[in-house]
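Quick start: read one record
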Amino acid sequence: MSHFQRIYSKKNRFFIIRAFSLVELLIAVGIFSVVSIAIYSAFFTGSAVLRRINNFDLGQQKILLKTERLSRELREQCACRKQLFQGDKTRISFCANIDYFPSRLTYYFDSASLTIKRVADRLNDIIDEDGKLDPELHAPAKFYLTKVKEVSFSYLYLDLSKNLYLWKQEWKEDALPLAVKFIITGKNKKYESTVYLPRN
């Protein structure tokens, strides 16, 4: 029999007590434990994968939002001294209104910390009495985008001698370039954007 029976009498009445044997209890507990461990491991693995996907999506969204903000600030730069616009491969400066103050906005890649930093210098702090512009950054740099492997800025112009539109990686002209292209390389992907600048 799969279970044992005990029969006893009480006032000429017979009662049968049925119960599981110790072996049957151990087998049931073992099966329950195996099933519980399988369910827990499946749940834990699924949670880890979901967490990884969410973190990846958030990282992508953060880079996309930051590149869109930089593009918008380039497009909406205010009309001021054009020599404020300068740039090279890893740094760009241009005129912007920050908290209703005309400012020089600078983005640059810090290779030591693998971040893009943002500096907003008010014009009255960087232009002296003779009207000369101080090229040094004065305001404290703020972290703009982290976990960046590489940044590359390039500038579009019209070469009149060749009658061609060309890109170069340094801009020190007294006029705005036609467009700015920047490539931000993250952990697993490159983000590229081309911004056509307003013409005065």
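The longest strand covers residues 101-110.
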